[in-house]
Amino acid sequence: MIDKTGQFVGRHDFDELSWTDSRYIGKRGTALYQLDGKGGEIRLPANASQESSWAKAELEAAREHDISLSFYYPRLNITRVDFCRLAVKLYQKVQPNASAAPAVTFSDCENESVCLAAALGIVTGYDDGTFRPYQSITRQEAALNSLSRPNCKPLCAVLTPLRPIPICL
After folding, report:
1. pTM for the whole thing?
2. CB atoms near residue 84 (< 10 Å)
3. Sign (positive/negative) of CA torsion 138, 147, 165, 82?
4. What are 43's strand-pairing partners?
5. Which residues touch 94 (CB under 8 Å, ≥6 apart)?
6. Helix 80-94 vs helix 112-119: angle between axes, to the nearest 10 degrees?
7. How far is residue 139's CA from residue 83's CA, in Å, rounded to a whole number?
8. What is the 3-state secondary structure (H, E, C) of 9-46?
9. For residue range 89-118, what is the model confidence (pLDDT) as tens digits?
10. Which residues is 17 bridged to in the sheet?
């Protein structure tokens, strides 16, 4: 199977194949698989489409404040583009009258949320000029994006008015 950029993303022996939550999901019988974009696949847990019980209250609060995204598979890691969509929603909720930041562009991504998050200094791309929007965001990247860096808007400063975060002391 080839994606829209001409890159091989996996074999296609699936009963169904969909682009869901910023990733390819294949189905064989009742089993679901996430394609990794390199020809590999990861079998998803049977409960991948269910919210975790420990997160239900926080997810409901986020929905009430309109600061959540709807995911068909909430137990999967989020992509870098989804992280930006969440960060920008939070920023716009806390700073509704903020002026638009100058655009930042990447060679592989024109997503408005990604460009705005980068312009605000919430996220950065890679040294080769790419952003890699559909790559899962690592804990390390999320932590770096959540801490203050020179000339950057720390994500924890965006979140603080909604719920204090200890690291922002």
Report:
1. 0.68
2. 27
3. negative
4. 33
5. 158, 159, 161, 162
6. 60
7. 12
8. CCCCCCCEEEEECCEEEEEECCEEEEECCCCCEEECCC
9. 888 888 877 666 667 789 898 888 888 888
10. 26
